[in-house]
Amino acid sequence: MYKEKLTFDLMPSAISEILTKVENIEAFINSQPQQTTTTTDPEPYIYGIKGLSIFLQVSTVTAQKIKNSGKIPFSQAERTIIFKKDEVLNALSNTKLKTVKK
């Protein structure tokens, strides 16, 4: 590294030094094993309206209204309502937002 004042004449060697350091950093990064961060959700299901309300961070009344509107798919085993998290997120991301007209 240059400790002296950098002049126009010293620029080519300074740039060369910087490029060498960048190449060393790239070589180091490429030599490291690639880490795949695939996090799988340990629980891909949501159980009940209360669980849906917690997942969506809405009230239980709002969660019930969303379910009743038919916007999200669900299954029902006896009295237990079961939602798949990924299907809920996909269904809600595909719905159009209402615009408020003034």
Q: What characteristics describe this protein?
A:
11% strand; 102 residues; 3 strands; mainly alpha
Describe the structure.
The protein starts with 10 loop residues before the first helix and ends in an 8-residue tail after the last helix. α2 crosses α3. It contains four helices and three strands, in the order αβααββα. The mean pLDDT is 83. A three-stranded antiparallel β-sheet has the order 1-3-2. The protein has a domain of 50 residues. It is mainly alpha-helical and 102 residues long.
The general outline is elongated
Question: What is the radius of gyration computed over CA atoms, rounded to a whole number of angstroms?
Answer: 28 Å
Instruction: Count helical runs.
Output: 4
| Major beta sheet, strand line-up | 1-3-2
Uncertain spans: none
Q: Whole-number average pLDDT?
A: 83
Assembly type: single chain
Q: Strand content of the residues, in percent?
A: 5-15%
Question: How far apart lie the N and C ends?
Answer: 62 Å
Describe the SSE topology:
Blueprint: H1 11-31, E1 45-47, H2 48-56, H3 60-69, E2 75-77, E3 80-84, H4 85-94
Antiparallel strand pairs: 1-3, 2-3
Helix pairs in contact: 2-3
Summarize it.
A 3-stranded antiparallel sheet has the order 1-3-2.
